[in-house]
């Protein structure tokens, strides 16, 4: 869910400016899943631009407090959300930890890195939501460690129906700074894409797994 439409459009504008989001309707990307896609998102790039990372983490911190109140800790999902999650935690002056996709094979064999107290209330920070499966695995790991997960906040989501369904089935509240719909609105309003390109991008969104150029 989008909390603030102006923030959603501003976030989309910033991500486009630094090519954290690339739109290439005529030269589609191939995702690891094998899907052909006219969009590619890498929000880790935001960390290299101080004014933009500051805007994003401050907006995320404000929304965390607005939606959930101040949690006991912020938890980032490895690896994409470690940096931005730590900045959110610093802004809120609360502890930070992060969750690996699976426990390490050596050493202490941790899946959760950092110190959290049992029954801590936590908000999970994610950089990008596609299907949501990896994000929800992190939530499950936290719950298995007796954490109270209040919800998740991400920078951007493609807004796939399967992600919505996955979060609903898991009973996890998801909010994002921006999403695919607001991205297209901002890209069209600023002439970043043409009307024909917008149509292509909208068609992909309807059926991303079967879309072809």
Q: Percent range for helical residues?
A: 40-55%
| H and E order | HEEEEHEHEEEHEHEHH
Question: What spatial order of strands do you see in the largest sheet?
Answer: 7-6-5-8-9-10
Uncertain residue ranges: none
User: Alpha-carbon distance between the termini?
Assistant: 29 Å
The geometry reads as: globular
Helix segment count? 7
Task: Estimate the strand proportion.
Answer: 15-25%
- Count the beta strands: 10
Mean pLDDT: 94
Cα gyration radius (Å): 17 Å
| Oligomeric status | single chain
What does the largest sheet look like? Answer: 6 strands, mixed
Protein structure class = alpha/beta
Main attributes?
213 residues; alpha/beta; two-stranded antiparallel sheet; 7 helices; 10 strands; 22% strand; globular
Structure description:
The chain has 213 residues and is an alpha/beta fold. Helices cover 41% and strands 22% of the residues. It has helices at 5-17, 50-68, 82-92, 133-144, 161-170, 180-189, 195-206; strands at 21-23, 29-30, 36-37, 39-41, 73-77, 96-99, 112-113, 121-129, 148-157, 174-179. A hairpin with a 5-residue loop joins strand 2 (29-30) and strand 3 (36-37). The longest helix is centred in the first third of the chain and has 19 residues, at 50-68. It is globular. It starts with a helix and ends in a 7-residue tail after the last helix. The model has no long low-confidence stretch (mean pLDDT 94).
